[in-house]
Give the backbone structure.
Amino acid sequence: MALRLYNTLTREIEPFQPLQPGRVSLYTCGPTVYNYAHIGNFRTFLFEDLLRRWLEASGYQVFHIMNITDVDDKTIRGAAEAGLPLREYVRQYIDAFHEDRRYLRILDASVYPRATDFIPQMVALVEELLRKGVAYKGDDGSVYFSIERFPSYGKLSRIDTRELKTGASERVSSDEYAKEDARDFALWKATKPEDEKVGAAWDAPFGRGRPGWHLECSAMALALLDQQWGTDVLDIHAGGVDLIFPHHEDEIAQSCAYTGKNLFARYWLHGEFLNIRGSKMSKRFGNITTPRDLREDGVDAGAIRLLMFQTHYRQKLDLTDEALAAAQEGSRRLGEFQRRLRENAGPSDTPRFQHSAQQLKRLTAEALDDDLNAPRAVAALFTYMNEGNAALDAGEQPGPAALAAWNEAEGVLRVASEVVIMQVTGGTAESSDEVRDLSEMAPSESQESWALAWARRRKDQKTAKNYAEADRIRELLRAAGWEVRDKPDGSVEVVRIKRAS
């Protein structure tokens, strides 16, 4: 069965056919870097990672653009409150996003364009829309898109605009506005004192100012698409359901008006919300959890991915302590089986392993080809684990087919815990210069020297600003029962974590 995806544009599951055989252009809306991205944001990024991995596993060459929104109402307000230039203010949150993304095993995009690096392209887009008469300059000095002059406005969100009036009283200048409040939206905002204060204002033929949020994605996508493959239509545009309106609706309007095409993207994919206590996670309401919160609690990334993928991306998901605990145990079991499978692999497969491997490959492909049905793919992985453990207990040997089937399926889902790599026998390291890999060690109450050696290495990595490696070491030490503490004199110590009884 070939890949089929639910297209928000048509409200149907459709066979996927890229514009160019073997190649896929994928645009995903990235973070707005005014604060740390929360785990609800990352639910969207994880479903997009699954899509990307499955496209590549299916043989496609994927050009993946994920934008960084570094100029909008929120980032400007945050920079002003912090008393910092915009570019300096957002840097910490861009770095944090990439740290969190790597922790959650999300693949690097092909490119991460920042909005402030594409101002000339945005100015050119606005100029063309003004020339075509679908945009106009308002009496406030800003440039607006006229939805009345774009008859197909609303085709993605299914908003009925027939009874709406346009004009000065029906404009919206904020980057985000109420659902179904379809009015002329700002393409370019006339500069304000707070914009100038933080360096968020640029000269343009139609007046000094800065881009509207919706304009940014269109300009970046069109510029990079043309540069990479000489096209102006995306294969897939993905994001959260909250972006359908107004953001993606406005992207379609301005992009199609600019190119003269009736499509900006052929397939629109949207992931549902992650809820906490039944409510949408929101910085506005203070009910947020970030990946770094979970990382500090010692939660393995595989457990978070497993939790996310046990619910279909188009269904709401509730984050609870019980669900996370169950996912941690499931991820641990998968990681333990992965270790057993690799340690016992031989030159050939027994018939039992051959059959299980064939089943895993078939069931995984059928599930993910069916609109990324990750719950079914996860179920196939657990079935394979149960059958494989039974075979291993019976003394049977896995071979190349068993390993390949596991590596292919788990390589797409990435839900197995990496903590269990420490659960094999080994000796004790004597110094930081002779530290053995964590996968060779067996931490125990008597192995403080082992933990201390790794704590020192973590400090070295942190000093070298290799934060991802430093975080990895801290997480694995924590999972092994050790907490790292920095002492006032610059040295480090390790303390055994007391587990609740």
Observations:
- Residues 182 and 452 are 60 Å apart (CA to CA).
